[in-house]
Amino acid sequence: MKFLKEQKILLVRFSSLGDVLLTTPLIRSLKKLNNNFEIDFIIKEQFKDVVSNNPYIRKVFAIKNFNELKRIKNKLIENKYDIVINLQNNFRSRKFVKGISPKIFGYKKENINKFLLVNFKINRLQNIIPTPVRYANSIPGFRLDNEGLELFIPENIKPTITEKPDTIGFCPGSVHKTKMWPEEYFIKLGNMFSEKGYRIILFGGKSDRQICSRISGKIFSAIDASNDNKLFETSVNMKLCKTVICNDSGLMHTAVANKVPVVALFGSTVKEFGFAPYKSKSLVIENSLLRCRPCTHIGLNECPKKHFDCMKTLTPEFVFNKTLNFLKTI
After folding, report:
1. Domain 167-329 has CATH 3.30.70.250
2. I want to staple 68 with a disulfide (CB 3.0 to 4.6 A). Which of 38, 63, 181, 269 is the partner?
3. Phi-psi group of 229: left, alpha or beta (phi > 0 → left; psi -120 to 50 → alpha; rest → beta)
């Protein structure tokens, strides 16, 4: 694609935490291509902190709900964007971006191939393409730089926890149950690390407060750092950790964006979907021998087979030894 010397670009990605973090390589790479690009971003209010402090973005349009789209669309039309890049690319977003710009590019989600892999185990995604690269591929001829995710934190945000060597973070939550390593496994793993002299910090958002409280209360000297979706506070505390052990979740990508090594536990989902840790020091632990994986490309409320072996076979002892070996490489 031929880019003009000066160009106004609107990026559309309403949600959610991880998906928006995965747009940051595209934002940075566009600005590197031409510093005169004026890049705006439209997002749901609850996720705006992901991009609100990004120096490559001119303006963030945050909506509280989708009822505001009609009102804000008129304003966006007045801005006369040269390009709209639709990184949400569902029915609502396609309808929304129509008419905002003469050039509209959309992110290809590979829905058919995901359907074939989930339902028939026909894997046409063996050549794993990370989601940031798929975002970039929505623009013909465009390529990303070789750097990872980014999250820009205001300078006035300071850790609420004292720094201590040999600190490990746990992120036990997820929107979907089949992406969550068992609670009792986190407890056992935490106590195994505590016996080795490690300190455990629990991270999570508003929906994770209860599980973080339960787990931290059963691990010796663990700290519950979950909060009401204070992304910047979570980020600065994460930076205290040697590694973060997490599910396939938004907080996994948060750790990656903060340049913290991650150990990611994948259950019902697989790396082929493109959401593994991107360009980071990371270790993905999964049971690749199960024929029922993946059972979903997003996540489910319960295991369709009722055994939940994708997570239960990843025992605390196995994860403990894998993590210790991973720590030696950092």
Report:
1. no
2. 63
3. left
